[in-house]
Structures are given as C-alpha cells and as structure tokens.
Amino acid sequence: MEKITYRSATPDDVSLCIRIRGLTRENAFSEEDLRSLGITVESWSAGIVEGSSSGVVACVGGRMVGYCFGDRETGEITVLALLPEYEGQGIGKSLLKQITEELRLAGFERLFLACASDPKVRSYGFYRHLGWTWTGECDDAGDEILECWVAK
Question: Are 22 and 28 in contact (CB under 8 A)?
C-alpha cells in the first residue's frame, strides 16, 4: 500500500473535492446537487480563503482520495468524503480526528454534524463508533444531528 499523506486543503483543491463528493459510495452529491444547496467552487474556495472553512485532504501517491472540512464559526463538521476504494483503511477516521482537533484548538468544546438516520448507511455506525451521539434533533433533510464533546 502506498503511503497516505495529509495536508491542509487549499482553494485549488475544491474542484476535485466536489468531484470526489460525487463519487462516494453513499450519500454522493453531484456538482449540480451541491450547486442547488448553494455550494459552488467559488463559495467553498471563499470559505477557505476567509478562514471560516477549514479542511484536510488525504493523498495517496500524490492523488487526493478524501477530505474533511469543518466550519470554524459554528463547530460543524460539514463534510467527510472518501473514494470507495480507500474505505476501511483508517483514512476517514484520521481526517475527522484532524479537523476535530483543529476545531478544538479554535475553542470549540461541542462539535456537531448531520448524519444519515438509517442504520444500514456506513456513516451511521462510523460516527457512533467514534463516540458521536444523537442530539434527538434532525435537520430539514431528515438527517440526525450528532454531537461530540471535546476537552479544551
């Protein structure tokens, strides 16, 4: 297996992040789907430049295979996406841990994210296995809002 490297995301990564999001095995969103939610290359890149959106990308052999982003203004984990052929190798867990730590250092004690409410979906068990718990709330799409408390 080739070495996995991690680095901070840059605005130049966004178009590939959008492409990867459409290739995920579950909960894929195409560029058009994201645009309908107001997420474009321009808006995502602007968040990185402004510092409100913080991300880490994972690369194998210099090729981006996944990423995780968090909102530095709210403490929300906004997205974790990984190409299917790289699942089960600890990459998603590592990406999430890195963004969690970054948001903790930014002063957040409580982080949150939206997760599928269907136990058959991988993310349902993934986040819960890592200690995230359901708040009892759901978002407009019916996804459960999970939270994680991190020590300062």
Answer: yes
Residue 55 structure tokens: 């991300």
Q: Give tens-digit pLDDT for 31-86.
A: 888 988 889 999 999 999 999 999 999 999 999 999 999 999 999 999 999 999 99
pTM (2 d.p.): 0.94
Task: Mark residue 51 as left, alpha or beta (left: phi above 0; alpha: psi -120 to 50; beta: remaining).
Answer: left
Eight-state DSSP code of residue 62: T
Write the single-letter amino acid at 35: R
Beta-ladder partners of 17: none
Residues in the chain: 152
Q: Which two tokens stand for residue 39?
A: 């997420």
Best CA proximity match to 69, nearest among 95, 37, 40, 93: 95
Give the pLDDT of residue 25. 86
Q: What is the largest CA-CA distance in the chain?
A: 41
Contact 57/6 with Cβ under 8 angstroms? Answer: yes
- How many CA atoms within 13 Å lie on the side-chain side of 125? 5
Residues 6+ positions from 20 with CB-CB distance below 8 Å = 64, 65, 66, 67, 81, 82, 83
